[in-house]
Amino acid sequence: MTATAMPILRTAPLRQFDLIAFDWDGTLFDSTAIITRCIQEAVRDVGGTVPSDADASYVIGMGLMAALAHAAPDVPKEKYPLLGERYKHHYTVHQDDISLFAGVLPMLHTLKSRQHFLAVATGKSRRGLDETLARDELQGLFHASRTADETAGKPHPLMLQELMAEFGVPPERLLMIGDTTHDLLMARNAGCPSVGVSYGAHDHADFVALSPLFVAHSVAELQDWLLRNG
Question: With bands split at pLDDT 50, 70 and 90, how would you rate the model's confidence at 8?
Fold first, then answer.
């Protein structure tokens, strides 16, 4: 009598993160150069000292007014409303020049198919983010989003705290992905792990002190890491 071979049971890999929150500009959206130029033009319009590329790009990810105040410290506070309006003007002119980084859409669809919740945590305004997410190719991809003007600007952890509460996810099950130290510090302030990307606004050498789990140098590297570790 021949013994019946027992079937080999294969289990699906365990998911480490239930919720993955992405920064927008410089992480998913290739907008760093445009935002830097718009900040510089806005400061020039109101008579301030035009910040360098490095100084202007450093503030990307912060709330708009906090970013402009940091980038233009010699502009008096009474001119902040005008400064903000001039930035929005220049951004509106150039917003159609911006596009998703290559590979972002397939990566997001793959993560969603693996049953991850996907969210956006951004320094953009609610209006600005909603206009972007209204694009046909982005509709229905994200389960939730938070913006600086409805919560608190980075690196305050409120965006991530609200997302954790909405989905009932503990800090260790939320992964924050971003291109700036503001993103990674926000994650640390919320008690969440993070991943940095080096192709955005900040020098990735500055990420070391914030202990991200990984630093991706391309969208392809990011997707590969997420599929193996997410």
Answer: very low
Count of all residues that appear for the chain in the document = 230
Distance (Å, rounded) from C-alpha 57 to C-alpha 59? 5
Q: Identify the structural domains of the chain with CATH numbers, from first to last.
A: 19-30+99-229 (3.40.50.1000), 32-97 (1.10.150)
Reading phi first (left if > 0) and then psi (alpha if -120 to 50, else beta), residue 134 is in alpha
The pTM (predicted TM-score) of the whole model is 0.74
Burial of 16 (0-12, 13-18, 19+ CB in 10 A): middle
- How many CB atoms are located within 10 Å of the residue 183 CB? 35
Q: What is the pLDDT of residues 81-124, one digit of tens each?
A: 898 899 889 988 877 776 888 899 999 999 999 999 999 999 88
**% of the chain beyond a pLDDT of 70:** 94
Collect all residues with Cβ–Cβ distance below 8 Å to 79 and sequence separation of at least 6: 46, 47, 48
